[in-house]
Amino acid sequence: MDAGAGEGVPAPSIGCPKSTGPGTAHQSVNADETWTAAASPHTLKYDTTIYATVTIEACAEVLIAAGRICNQTYPGGVSTGCPAPAAVPCPK
After folding, report:
1. pLDDT tens digits, one per residue of 58-71
2. What's the gap between Cα 14 and its chain centre?
3. CA distances to 28, 75, 81, 83 from 63, in Å
4. What is the C-alpha to C-alpha distance for residues 54 and 74, in angstroms, rounded to an integer?
5. What pLDDT score was predicted for residue 87?
6. Residue of 39, 61, 63, 89 with fewest CB within 10 Å of its CB?
7. Averaged pLDDT score across all residues of the chain
C-alpha cells in the first residue's frame, strides 16, 4: 500500500493491472463522482464525509489511511457497480 495511505493487506487480485500513477487524493465528497481505475489509487488520507454518490469502477483501487473515518450522510453512498449488493455504505 501507499505509505501515505496507512497499513493494510492488499485485496486479492481479480485480473486488474496494478496502479502505477500518482493517484487521486480525496477529502469530503459534495457532488456525485466516479472513481476510475485510470485515476487509481484513490486515497483518503483524512477523515472523509460523503454527501453524494461515489461510483467505484471495476479495478479502481481505494486506500483509506489507518485510523481515518469515512462517514456517509443521506443520500450519499458508495456504489461499486457490482450486482449485489448494489450499494456499499462507508463504515460508520
Report:
1. 888 888 888 888 88
2. 17
3. 15, 23, 18, 22
4. 13
5. 40
6. 89
7. 74
d(CA 60, CA 35): 7
Q: Which residue has the higher pLDDT, 10 or 32?
A: 32
Q: How would you classify the pairing of strands 33-35 and 62-64?
A: unpaired
CA angle 17-21-27, nearest 5°?
Answer: 110
Cα–Cα distance, 73 to 53 (Å, whole number): 10
The position carrying cell 465528497 is 29
List the domain boundaries for the chain: 24-92
- Structure confidence at residue 39 as a pLDDT band (50, 70, 90): very high
Dihedral angle sign, alpha carbons of residues 10, 16, 21, 25: negative
